[in-house]
Design a protein that fits this description.
Number of strands: 3
Structural class: alpha+beta
Strand order of the largest sheet: 1-2-3
Order of helices and strands: EEEHH
Helix content: 25-40%
Radius of gyration: 13 Å
Shape: flat
Strand content: 25-35%
Largest sheet: 3 strands, antiparallel
Amino acid sequence: MRASRPSHHARPVAFTDDGLVEAFALEVERIIAVQWHPEVLWRCEEHALTLLRNFVAAVSR
C-alpha cells in the first residue's frame, strides 16, 4: 500500500509507530483532523481530554 501525503498546507502532528499520519493541522484554517476517537478516550488519555477541551473552547467563542 502506498503511503499518502497530506497537502502542503497540512502539517502532520501525530504518527503511528510505523510512520502513518494519525493527525494533522491546517496552517491556513483553524482545523485539526485526527484518526482516532478522543470522545471515547478522554477519560483515560490526557491528550484526548486536551483536544476536547480546546475544541469546546474554540466553538464556544
